[in-house]
Design a protein that fits this description.
The chain has 15 helices and 16 strands. The protein is of the alpha/beta class.
Length: 437
């Protein structure tokens, strides 16, 4: 089924596509790789989904323009072990959702609109988008609150479908939430990107929804809960996602608990081995990449757990150290630690120059491109946020920055403006040099 045409029809847009002149005027080109840069995100977020689709088709590596979106889209092929070299870019799809009054909606549509400004995968490695939210959050799902009121993405509900922050609930009679995710994945794959999502494993941060009953707290000792966890994640993998970022993965099995900041029990080591094995087995996909937060240091431990990569092992500001570890780990094909440009706990304050330096080190810190280590960055590393917020603040709260109650005003005020546009141009210049390595 062509989920793009189904989405366009659900949005009362026809499926006939024309070249997008705005994209041609704003495109950055590296060989056949094309994307939008030197912009502020609101320029894309104010556009329609139809315009986003036309933009992606206009930026296609293909030699002919598709007048209708093609039927069969495959994920970019970087082999089964693509995850050990990838750049992972987390996009807070809740923060860029449509904020109308106190309602938050359509985060997946906003992410589709932003896709043209994400650099596609390079010749030698994949770029992978990680979505911050898929499942409903426990408190205030579907609503925005004040900038200091808790509305955390880190608390999720299972067995409750998908977040009202993210799906377009007004068109579910025409295209289901699952099909909306499939449309997103098809568009991301068409643009040359892998896709994934964030999940949590701290028991007290997970609720299990029960029909006509109160939610119950997740329990790793409850076999039904474990089975639900596995099946919910397999469902998403079967919708086209190929990566799962696992919050608090370092502490699985009680490891380094003195630095654990999550809430509640974690699965045992053997239990998580089983869970990751089952997700791979039940989905039937050999290309999955499981990324563990802070899972670095004891490489063997994480490799045998079933992880593909981990964050925060290398000193990201030191080019020579990155290059040294690239050489040291170049033969590792099952698990590699990565360079963390910034993470979901980033409180802001890092200079643009420091961010650019970290991106530079992650893209070029090696002897040969085939030896590149994975990197991890946030939306803010491509599109700087306004000065008085941060990545972590937007994970913990869900404020609207609209001055008139419209989503357009929120998008304008969420991100840095003139300086943010200039920074985005400099990021694009770094990616230009890396795309054909």
């Amino acid at each position: 089924m062509n989920y793009i045409n189904k989405l366009l029809n659900a949005l009362c847009a026809n499926s006939q596509l024309i070249p997008d002149q705005w994209s041609i005027e704003h495109q950055y080109i590296s060989g056949k790789k094309k994307w939008i840069a030197n912009i502020v995100p609101s320029e894309l977020l104010k556009r329609s989904v139809k315009q986003a689709v036309e933009s992606l088709v206009t930026l296609c590596e293909c030699d002919e323009f598709y007048k209708t979106f093609p039927d069969n889209i495959q994920t970019p092929n970087y082999g089964d072990k693509w995850g050990v070299r990838a750049n992972y870019i987390e996009i807070n799809n809740r923060a860029i959702a449509e904020m109308k009054g106190n309602l938050t909606r359509n985060g997946i549509l906003s992410t589709i609109k932003l896709l043209p400004a994400i650099p596609p995968s390079a010749k030698s490695w994949a770029n992978c988008i990680i979505l911050s939210q898929i499942f409903p959050n426990i408190y205030g799902d579907g609503y925005n609150k004040g900038p200091n009121e808790e509305n955390s993405i880190y608390g999720i509900r299972l067995n409750a479908g998908y977040s009202q922050n993210i799906i377009d609930i007004d068109i579910t009679d025409k295209i289901s939430p699952e099909e909306q995710f499939m449309a997103f994945n098809d568009l991301a794959h068409f643009h040359g990107l892998k896709t994934g999502f964030r999940t949590v494993i701290s028991a007290d941060q997970i609720k299990v929804a029960k029909p006509y009953k109160d939610d119950v707290t997740f329990d790793w000792n409850n076999s039904e809960h474990q089975e639900l966890f596995i099946n919910e994640h397999v469902k998403l993998i079967n919708l086209g996602f190929e990566s799962i970022f696992i919050d608090s993965a370092k502490h699985i099995g009680g490891y380094d608990m003195e630095n654990y900041t999550g809430v509640g029990a974690l699965p045992s080591y053997e239990q998580m081995q089983y869970i990751l094995y089952e997700i791979r087995s039940r989905s039937g996909k050999t290309t999955l990449s499981f990324v563990g937060e802070k899972s670095s240091g004891d490489f063997k431990r994480y490799e045998e757990l079933g992880l593909t990569s981990g964050t925060a092992f290398l000193e990201p500001d030191n080019f020579e150290e990155v290059k040294h570890w690239s050489e040291k780990l170049k033969y590792k094909q099952e698990y590699t630690p990565g360079i963390e440009i910034s993470n979901d706990n980033d409180e802001g304050g890092r200079t643009y120059e420091d961010r650019l330096n970290r991106i530079n080190n992650s893209l070029f810190g090696y002897e040969y491109p085939s030896d590149k280590l994975p990197s991890f960055m946030q939306m803010e590393d491509l599109f700087p946020l306004r000065y008085d917020t941060s990545t972590h603040h937007l994970m913990m709260t869900n404020p609207s920055y609209s001055t008139d109650g419209t989503p357009e005003s929120h998008w304008e005020n969420l991100f840095a403006k003139i300086d943010g546009q200039e920074y985005n141009r400099k990021v694009a210049n770094l990616f230009i040099y890396a795309q054909n390595l």
